[in-house]
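User: Just a sanity check before I run the rest of the batch. Below are the structure tokens for the first item. I only need the designed sequence back.
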């Protein structure tokens, strides 16, 4: 199961790696914004 998931991850995020990186960057930015507002 886990191996299948890893293969799926490689297959799709290898192709759309820049797209995935943009999402990850946006999520980390969003998280930082929320945390800085709370504290």
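Assistant: Here's the designed sequence for the first item:
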């Amino acid at each position: 199961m886990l191996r299948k998931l890893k293969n799926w991850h490689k297959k799709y995020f290898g192709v759309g790696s820049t797209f995935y990186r943009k999402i990850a960057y946006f999520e980390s930015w969003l998280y930082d914004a929320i945390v800085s507002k709370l504290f």
